[in-house]
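During the reporting period the student researcher (J.K.) took over the structure-prediction task from the postdoctoral fellow and processed the backlog of single-chain submissions. One of the processed entries is reproduced below for the supervisory committee.
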Amino acid sequence: MDLFQNYKALLQKVDESTQAVHQRAKDALKCHEGCSSCCAKDLHVTKVEADYIVQNVQASNLVLNHEEGCVFLDLEGACQVYDFRPILCRTHGYALVNENPTKSKSSLKVHNTISWCDLNYQDREPTQDEIIDTGRLDQMRFIINQLYIQSKPETQDSLRGQGSSDFISLDQVAKRLLKKTT
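J.K. obtained the following structure tokens:
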């Protein structure tokens, strides 16, 4: 059985959703391949997302960025784990409903509970069908993470006493990748 089956199904839904938004809002979206404006330092992912990256990425090919931005950005600002990037990275920049918007180190426009990258929607606000509901998405992500943790006895032991909502930094994921090669 594929331990990542539920997670990969969610990734497919997220990708389909962001592609549909991209088609509808293409004139308002300035994000493009190689854009790393939203790729901030100190991003955190769930256990299933971290393990998915570790299982699928070859650490021997990575050049880790310890200076600024995400640890997985290469010297030109491109994502080295792009095909296996977490949900947070797949939705960055789009208009997101967020019940508790906060200002991060990246530049976000916040209007009521909807936030998006400053590069996007400069000439207009996002329409209702261009907004991604992160509350619902996070709910699904946390349920899938809990199912993943329950399916791995060694994970249950290592996370005993920690809530299923605990996150792992991408820096820690990078360290795990490096250990995988040694």
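The committee noted the following: Residues 5-181 form one domain.
J.K. will present the remaining backlog at the next meeting.
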